[in-house]
Structure formats: C-alpha cells, structure tokens
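Case study.
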Amino acid sequence: MSKELWKGNEAIAEAAIRAGCRYFFGYPITPQNEIPEYMSLHLPEAGGVFLQAESEVAAINMVYGAAGSGARVMTSSSSPGISLKQEGISYLAGAELPCVIVNIMRGGPGLGTIQPAQGDYFQATRGGGNGDYRLIVLAPSTIQEACDHVRDAFDIADRYRNPVMILADGMIGQMMEAVEWQPSESRTLPEKTWATVGTGGTRKPNIINSLFIDPNESERHNAHLNEKYDVMRAEEVRYEATIPDDADVLFVAYGTPARLAKAAIRLLAKEGITGGLFRPISLWPFPEKPLNEAASAASVKAVVTVEMSLGQLVDDVKIAVNGVKPVSLCGKAGGIVPTPREVADAALAALGRK
Amino acid sequence: MIDLSPLTLIGGHYGSGKTEVAVNLAFLARKTGRDVTLADVDIVNPYFRSYEQRVPLEDAGIRVVTGALGGTADLPALPAELGRLFTADPAETAIIDLGGDPVGARVLARYHDQLDDVAFQFYLVLNANRPETGTADKALAMIAEIESLSRQHMTGIINNTHLLDDTTVEDVLKGDRLAREVAARSGIPFVLTTVLEHLVPVLENRVQVPVMPLTRRMLKPWESNKSEGEFEWLHE
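After joint prediction, the assembly is written out as follows.
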C-alpha cells in the first residue's frame, strides 16, 4: 500500500477501527482530542458505537461493560483524565477484561499543562489503581509504530484477558508522519467463553466480577493473576537496541526522547564519541535482561536515561543495569522537550568530558 | 507568484501544511520589502503552530500576533489587535494562519462584518496525502464546511502535497491532479504549488501553476539542533 500522511492521534483511532474496535467511550482532553473526534466520525461508519461520556470515570466503566460482553473496546485520554480512570482500570484488571487504553501524556502533576511529557510512567507501569495488577504498556516512538501497537494491543488484551495501555507523549499524538497500513497477522485467539452474552438457556450465567469476599478465594485469584503476569513477563517483552560494538555511551529512552537520543548520537559522532540506544518498547514487562546485557558490553562506560519526567524510567533502568555501569538521568518535565544538544551534553557529562 | 496583499487567509485540513505555507509566505512577503504581520489564530491546536517561529520571524522584521497565553493554551480567545488586521490596510501584508478544519476557520465568522467590506485572498492548502482530503469529493466537502463555518468564500487553492522527507515528485503531481479537479468542480482557481526546494527544478514544465520553494521550519524537536531560532536540520 502507498504511504499516507497521518497525525498520531487520528492514526491511533484508525488503527483501532482496523483492529476491530467497535466501541469507544471517552471524554475530551488536550492533547488527545483527535482520537475521539476521529472515532465520532468514523466508528459509526464501521458499524461501531462512539459515545462521549459525562466524565472519564463514566467512560472507563462503559469500557468495563463493553469488554465484559466480549466486544473490542477502547478509551483514550491524557494524563489527568487517565488519573480519573484508575479505579476502573484496576477493576478491569481484577475482572480480567481485555481492552485498550491510550494515554497521550501531557505535563503534570495535577492539571499541569497541555504540552508533551512522560510523567505518567510510574502510574502506567506500577499501577495507578489499587491492588496487585499489571498492565501491558506499549510505548511507540513513531506514528507507524503507534498504529502497529494499537493493532497488536487488541490481540494481546484478548490473549491474556487483560487491559493493554498505549503510552505516548503529546508529541507522538500531535505530530504528522507517513504511515503505511499493514494487514494484521491472523492470530489464533481464545474464544471469549467468559463473556456475558446470554446463556441461551444452555449454561450457567457468566459473572464478571472483581469482588472476592472470602480471603482464600481472593488469594487464589491473585495467585492466578500473577501466574498470568509471569507468562506476560516471559512472552511480551519488546525493545529496540541500536548499539554499535564500540559504543561509549548507552542511551535508554522511549517515545519522543528516543528520537532525541538518536539525534544526540549523530551530534556525538561528530565529536568522536560513539553512542548507542536501547529503547524499551514494552515498558511493562520491562526488558530487564536485554538492557543488562547491553549495558554490560565492555565498551560502554556510562548509561544515560533520557526522559520527559524527572526520574521515573531511570528507576527501571537502575534495576536492570544492576550496578554494572553508572546510570545517570537527563530529564525535563512540565511540557518542555529537551534539545538534542542537551541530551548530547548529558552524555558528555556522564563520560566525564564536560 | 501569488497575490499576498493586503490580507491573506490560510485555511485547510489540519496537517495539510497550512502553517508551513503561512510562515514561508510571511518570509517571502517580507523579502519584497513589505510591512508584514503573521497572525496565528489557531484556537484548536496548541502544537506545531506558527507562533513557535516568532523568534526568526521577528528577527526578519515580521510582526507576530497570537491568542491567549502566547498560543500555549487551547483557549478560544482572540487578541484585540487582530481586528485591526481585518481592515486590510493597503500599506501592509497581513497573513492569517487559521486553525485546521472547518472548526479552525470558524474564527473568521467573528470578523465577517469587517471581511464583507475589504478585499482579501482566502487560500485552501491542500495535501492529497492526507486521507481526509485525498479525493476531490472529500476536498470539496472540506471546502464547503470551511466556507459555511467561516462565512467566507475561498479564493484559491494551493497544492502542498507532501510526505515530509519522503516526498517525491509523484506526490506533488498527484496533488496537482487533485487540485486541478477540485478547482474545476468548485470554480476556485488553483493558484500555487509549494514544495521543498530540491523538488523545484524537477517540477519545471510539469505543472501549470507557479511553484514556490518551501524551507521546512516547523521541525520536530529532534530535527532541530537548537531550541529556538536556528534551523540546523538534523536529518534522521
């Protein structure tokens, strides 16, 4: 197929429709408004339902309902709106309901700003809601990748009966890039025998629930969820490693900062310094082992985490690197994007050259 | 090359490249020695807007006007000085960079009393690679909606068909065919093609309208070496 020019947000919406999403519930917030706007126009054309809810809380509970009936369903929001959805996300995970949640992050905390940021890393990877649950979190750094992630996210959600989050900063949502639509691979997914679609008088009713009053039953449920998370840890790790054999410095970054790190690597090359990039694509499960191996390479003298937050991703980087190399942080928050020069300078500082 | 005086309105689908065209037109007009004002009146979208280029624009002697909070908020607020620009003072060139889509062009409805009394150009920036304006039917629907919400008729079509750095001459020619069909069916003249500089010689004698070279200024953060004002392009 030929390439087209798409804006990140509208491409995410189109990718969802192409992936079979037929229900979308949301509430407007910048910088993700083109997602519901596109859905409102094009989801009905595909025979689906778009509904602007009265709030983010209502929207995520509508997602719960649609997912419970076995439909492919998505919601999207931006940082403060995603905070409002946290109770629903915990319930979805607890009730083992598949859905896709898109967070186009803006500056925080609180109402923050509408410019791009990555301050919701902890919330996405550590669980902003209550209880022992996990989301698979995918972080695109191009519009093409955002489309591919959305396509995969619905399958992953169905496979594990678990919510999947697409986590992208506002720049990814707002920028324009060329996209080529790829047909999705046909995967064998489990039949949704658990969905509440009517018994037809032939079986016991399915019950969608995250309430377990008997603590023994609750403990068994948690153990079951954790076994599922272990499979995800084993099978859903994604990353990109572009690391020359003689890399002096290893950048770790996702989303927009990964693009900045690539630009910084080109600047450093002119100054005789070789840089590599390790880009986690699944933020949970985090690519811990591959990152440790990359950082362990003999030539690497320093690991520099680049993030549009002030020390969130770097925690996972430190856990993964586990002391084999020094880890430092190049972070900016509140809606300001670091420049490639600032990222390059952070590497020079980490190498003791500045 | 294109009629720029005294009042030029730039509209179209979001992502068509309106802002890139508006900013480049401002520099072009300034080079002719005219007194130029660029007004960024996008009240829809806070990203990739012409106000971000205020430092190089002002360095070139171009006045820059925008809405509330320097355009960093998506507030439907318009600066009072905008009203003056719609008087179409013959001593200057005012370029109005509208927000995308019909909703972005709605701003003009606020000034329709003034616009009814002056001469102006209202250009549609058209990109055939944008799926929502990729066919003549869709582009005509976009024009009809823009004209309805803005309460003004569009006066010219600018073919700005591109795929950013991946743009080929075939992309531009595809846009040329689309623009000609839209012009024929709408009665709005096709007036200009805008392309990155390296494509200008390749297009020679292949399109009927004037070709204006564009300098890419609306760069992504990783495409620019400095935060503001300098354009060392870091090719990916």
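Observations recorded in class. The radius of gyration of chain B is 17 Å. Chain B has one domain: 7-223. We will return to this complex in the next lecture.
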